[in-house]
C-alpha cells in the first residue's frame, strides 16, 4: 500500500526544546511498514530538515500537497491555544492542525480512504463526531482503550528485545538510585505522591520541562536535555518511576519511557492504581505511596548486581512482549487493508 502518514515531530533526535515522545519509536514503526512492502509518504512539514538540520530525504518521502495514497495514518493533533489555533504566519504559529484538517477533508470526507487515527495523547474527546465516521478507526496506545477504540501500542524493535541481556544489564555500575526523564504535563499529582517523597532520601535527577517546581525545593531538576541523553540517564540509574496523567492511568496507557528504561536495565516503579500496571511490571515493583517507593529503592540498591536484580530486569523485559513491533504492524494493516491482512487486529 501507499500510505499517507501525518505526524508533527521528528524521525531523528530533533531539537532539545521541542517535546516529541514519538522520537523513540516512530522511525521503528515506519521502517517496519516499509520492510513489509508499504510505501510511506509523510504529509506534514519535514521538521527534521527545517528545525534539526537532519536530512532523511534520501530514505523517506515528504509531500506538502495532496498526493495519491491508498490509506491514511494520523498521529492525532489537537487544538493548542496560541500555537496551532492562530492564523497562519502569525508569531509562534504551527500549521499542524490546519494541515490535519485539510487531510481529513480530502482523504476522509472526500475520498473515504481507510484511516487510522492514532490518539497517542488521549486528546480526542469521547463524543467527537469523527469517531463515528465509517472511514475512521481510532487507536490508542492503551491496554484498555476508550469507547470503541483499538489498541496500538508504542512499538519496541524486536531485535532490541531479543538482544537484551538482563544479567549484563544488572552488572552495569549505576551511580543514581532514581531518575525521571519526561515533562511535567499533568503529572504534578503523581510526582508529588511518589517521586518527591523518594527524592528526599535518594540521589536523583529529573530531566525534562518542569516550569513549576516550587512545591519540591529538594528535587534536582536538570531542565530539558537532548533526546540522545535519555538512554544514558537510564543506564546510570537503578530505578525510574512511571508517572502518568489521570487520563493515562485510567485506561492503562504506558508511554515509551517504560521500554526506554527497561532496555537500559533501569527498573520502573509503578503505582498500584494504574490500570493494568500488573501487566507491565512484576508485583515487586508496584507501590502504593512514596514511602513504599523509598523502601523499594533501598532494597534494589542492596541487591544491585546480584541474581535477584537480574531476575527483576528479566521479568520486566518479558512483560514488554505486547509492545513488540511485530505485533503492532499487523494491527495497523488490519485497519488500513483488512481484506489482505494475514493476521492482526486488536492485541
How many runs of DSSP E, i.e. beta strands? 13
CATH class of the largest domain: Alpha Beta
CATH architecture of the largest domain: 3-Layer(aba) Sandwich
Distance between the termini: 22 Å
Helical stretch tally: 13
Kindly report the CATH topology of the largest domain: Rossmann fold
Any idea how many domains? 2
Helix-strand pattern: EHEHEEHEEEHHEHEEHEHHEHEHHH
Biggest sheet, in brief? 7 strands, parallel
Provide the β-strand percentage band.
5-15%
Amount of helix = 25-40%
Mean pLDDT: 94
Unreliable residue runs:
343-347
- As a whole number of angstroms, the C-alpha radius of gyration is 20 Å
Principal-axes geometry comes out as globular
Spatial arrangement of strands, main beta sheet: 3-2-1-4-5-6-7
Amino acid at each position: 500500500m501507499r500510505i499517507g502518514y501525518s505526524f508533527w515531530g521528528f524521525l531523528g533526535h530533533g531539537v532539545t526544546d521541542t517535546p516529541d515522545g514519538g522520537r523513540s519509536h516512530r522511525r521503528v514503526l515506519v521502517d517496519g511498514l516499509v520492510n513489509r512492502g508499504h510505501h510511506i509518504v509523510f504529509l506534514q512539514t519535514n521538521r527534521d530538515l527545517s528545525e534539526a538540520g537532519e536530512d532523511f530525504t534520501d530514505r523517506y518521502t515528504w509531500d506538502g500537497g495532496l498526493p495519491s495514497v491508498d490509506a491514511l495514518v494520523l498521529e492525532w493533533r489537537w487544538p493548542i491555544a496560541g500555537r496551532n489555533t492562530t492564523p497562519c504566519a502569525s508569531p509562534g504559529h504551527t500549521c499542524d492542525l490546519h494541515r490535519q484538517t485539510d487531510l481529513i477533508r480530502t482523504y476522509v470526507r472526500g475520498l473515504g480512504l481507510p484511516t487510522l487515527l492514532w490518539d497517542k495523547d488521549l486528546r480526542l474527546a469521547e463524543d467527537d463526531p469523527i469517531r463515528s465516521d465509517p472511514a475512521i478507526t481510532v487507536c490508542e496506545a492503551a491496554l484498555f482503550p476508550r469507547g470503541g477504540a483499538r489498541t496500538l501500542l508504542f512499538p519496541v524493535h524486536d531485535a532490541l528485545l531479543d538482544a537484551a541481556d538482563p544479567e549484563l544489564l544488572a552488572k552495569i555500575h549505576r551511580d543514581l538510585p532514581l531518575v525521571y526523564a519526561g515533562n511535567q504535563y499533568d503529572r504534578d499529582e503523581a510526582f508529588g505522591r511518589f517521586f518527591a517523597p523518594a527524592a528526599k532520601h535518594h540521589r536523583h535527577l529529573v530531566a525534562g520541562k518542569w516550569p513549576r517546581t516550587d512545591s519540591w525545593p529538594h528535587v534536582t531538576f536538570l531542565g530539558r536535555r537532548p533526546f540522545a541523553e535519555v538512554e544514558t540517564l537510564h543506564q546510570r540509574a537503578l530505578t525510574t518511576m512511571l508517572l502518568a496523567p489521570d487520563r493515562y492511568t485510567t485506561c492503562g496507557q504506558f508511554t515509551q519511557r517504560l521500554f526506554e528504561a527497561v532496555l537500559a536495565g533501569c527498573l520502573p516503579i509503578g503505582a498500584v492504581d494504574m490500570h493494568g500496571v500488573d501487566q507491565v511490571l512484576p508485583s515487586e515493583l508496584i507501590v502504593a505511596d512514596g514511602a513504599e517507593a523509598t523502601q523499594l529503592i533501598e532494597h534494589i540498591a542492596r541487591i544491585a548486581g546480584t541474581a535477584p536484580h537480574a531476575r527483576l530486569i528479566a521479568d520486566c523485559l518479558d512483560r514488554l512482549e505486547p509492545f513488540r513491533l511485530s505485533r503492532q504492524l499487523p494491527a495497523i494493516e488490519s485497519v488500513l487493508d483488512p481484506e489482505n491482512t494475514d493476521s492482526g487486529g486488536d492485541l
